[in-house]
Amino acid sequence: MLKLITVVYDFLWGDLVRIPLPGGSSLGLSLLVMILIPAGIYFTIRTRFLPFRLFPEMIKITLKSNQTTKKGNVSGLQALIISTACRVGMGNLVGVVAAISAGGAGAVFWMWLIALLGSSTASIEATLAQIYKEKDPLYGGYHGGPAYYLHALFVPKNSRRKHSVLAVLFALSGLICWCGISQVIGNSVSSSLQNAFNIPPLYSTVVLVVIAAIIVLRKNATVHVLDVVVPIMAACYFFFTVYVIIRNAGQLPDVFSRIFSEAFGFRQAVSGGIGAAIMNGAKRGLFSNEAGSGSAPCAAAAADIDHPAKEGLLQALGVFIDTIVICTCSAMIMLLVPEELISGLEGMDLLQAAMRYHIGEFGVIFIAVILVLFSFSTFLGILFYARSNVAYLFGNNWISQTLYKALDLIMLFIGGMAAYQFVWDLGDVGVGLMTIFNMIALFPLAPKALDALREYEGLKHQ
Known about the structure:
Blueprint: H1 2-13, E1 17-20, E2 26-29, H2 31-46, H3 50-53, H4 55-64, H5 76-87, H6 94-103, H7 106-131, E3 134-135, E4 142-143, H8 146-154, H9 165-197, H10 201-216, H11 221-247, H12 252-264, H13 266-271, H14 273-289, H15 297-300, H16 308-335, H17 339-342, H18 347-359, H19 361-394, H20 398-417, H21 421-460
Antiparallel strand pairs: 1-2, 3-4
Helix pairs in contact: 1-21, 2-7, 2-21, 4-16, 5-11, 5-16, 5-19, 6-14, 6-18, 7-12, 7-14, 7-16, 7-21, 8-9, 8-21, 9-10, 9-19, 9-20, 9-21, 10-19, 10-20, 11-16, 11-19, 16-21, 18-19, 19-20
């Protein structure tokens, strides 16, 4: 089993193709990068450059999308908050550090570019989730996502078949992925609290699991908690970064010059650094914003909103918030530190050293607390995602919903006590397979989403 997972992981995320570069180096392309980047370009063109053209409309919809038609339903803004909770996680901190460590400052530019392309993909999949959503008899409101629009694609309307093979595979991949992520979250939280406050992993993990259980085992408590936690944690991190930037405003021209020079520079091209910058920036962007993976549509489908394209635009904004705003915050924290002070450091050590430089020892504590909030909100978000997949596989019943929640809580506890690389890879394999199955549906169903977008724009101008 371990060998099989390694083989699948290498096939999905490993360098499937290598392109020679000047200087004798090469640019490695993984299967998922070769799928998602062309898809992002294709959907950006088909939506007539939606991220740029309709950005003001995204903001306008966000400010007006907190109303629901029925009590207890999820609003468009709440669906955005849920998906943001999952996008904004540990990867926005340590993942960006890893991208810059391996690819240099130039990785930041490619991270930005991938996010802008991914916004269009996110809009298409979220719109389809709205078009094919169904009533949720357990939690109220609606549920749906890729499993449901894959089913619609391959099962005729009048058929008695309850499942489609690809829809089942997507749903299973999602549940496997989120089990793996739960383990990673548990380990991230216990490790950060131990490093910052010397709290033994057993104590922090037990408290974490108990609090998580109280929230996720109560009907619809997840949405209300995320409504409070996500805006606060994102705002705190954002405003802290603004403070750091203002204090170091004189360095900004040099920082941006470094980002663009290392993204396109001749020296980097000759040395092979440009390949590292492109791939690490691309992978970081794809991992972080989730566009195309089919995760966010599980939240988008739940929104009670008056037009499917509106939710598409909200989820496109979610990609912008995740990568252009939050990931850039992490990048600036590091790039505004003298290189000699963080040379040779990686991961949390690098990030903590950067924070210590900016605001002293409080910075280490701040990062630990923010990491806990980011990780915990991600756990709540993925269990919201899982609702629709569990319902598709096992029907609308409390037993299957509760059993899956219990499984993820167990994984959260196991992860808090020790890190198992097997489960980390399992999570990556799960999200990779989700992406493959989701993209199979996106291309043939995209015309429906594009029609919805054109209809919405027509109504807007009437």
